[in-house]
Amino acid sequence: MNEDTTLSRDLADKGAASAPPPWGFWATLGFAVLAFLIGAGVVGGAVIWVNWGGLDKIVDVQDDPWFALQLIVINAVQIVVVATAARLARWPAAEYLGLDRPLVRDVLYGIAAVVVVLLVLELLTHLLGRASVTPFQVDSYRAAGAAGTVPLLWFAFVIAAPVGEEIVFRGFVFRGWAASPLGVSGTIVLTSTIFAIAHTQYDWFGTFQTFCMGALFGWLRWRSGSTTVTIALHVLINFVATLWTALKVAGVV
């Protein structure tokens, strides 16, 4: 992987060869952390305000029927923060974040790669005697069903989370870190590691699976030069996972 050539090609393909340099490693990390803290602060503050006087009765996220709404707000806030950071770097936000109209061949190539990786992970899941649907997914879906917020959960899991996570990790962070001494390979590994650790709802195997998908998304981001490709694939994966969860809760599978 010739990182310098690839990065230059990425910038040229997106018409950004003469653009100002992106944020460096530490500034990128700082803005990403700030986005997370502001998002968590807004949602956490709202939860505390709503439950004031009964803070000891706040339920875990998977049992909270309004978790989906919280997830939507967190991702929306994070997108606003990193888009603002991109503008502060004197770039068009969409260009900085890799949001473009992708090539059909890149999308098809990405779908094929995702299918292969998912099949391998599913085979490993069965070999280890583990369930394809995690307890967190089942509990979240049941809580939403009991509260009548299933459509909100679908929007949060299938649209909001994939769009927000990809814009932050494969869009904003990738742009800054790939141009830093960390390089493309280091960026893919480090962003995938943080991406996996951030999914605290999963056990070690779920974290491992998330790392693998994050690494695949990072590689596809590098190969295509487009965050839109990884957003589309992430949406597809989460749609299938949510549909499988719905069938599991309904007792169909």
Q: Would you give an account of this structure?
A:
- The protein has 253 residues and is an all-alpha fold.
- It has one domain.
- The chain has helices at residues 3-13, 25-50, 67-88, 93-96, 104-127, 135-147, 150-178, 183-198, 204-224, 227-249.
- The protein starts with a helix and ends with a helix.
- Mean pLDDT is 89; it is low at 1-15.
Report the end-to-end length measured between terminal Cα atoms: 42 Å
- Largest sheet report: none
What's the gyration radius in Å?
19 Å
Q: What pattern of helices and strands is seen along the backbone?
A: HHHHHHHHHH
Structural class: mainly alpha
- Give the % helix: over 70%
β-strand percent reads: under 5%
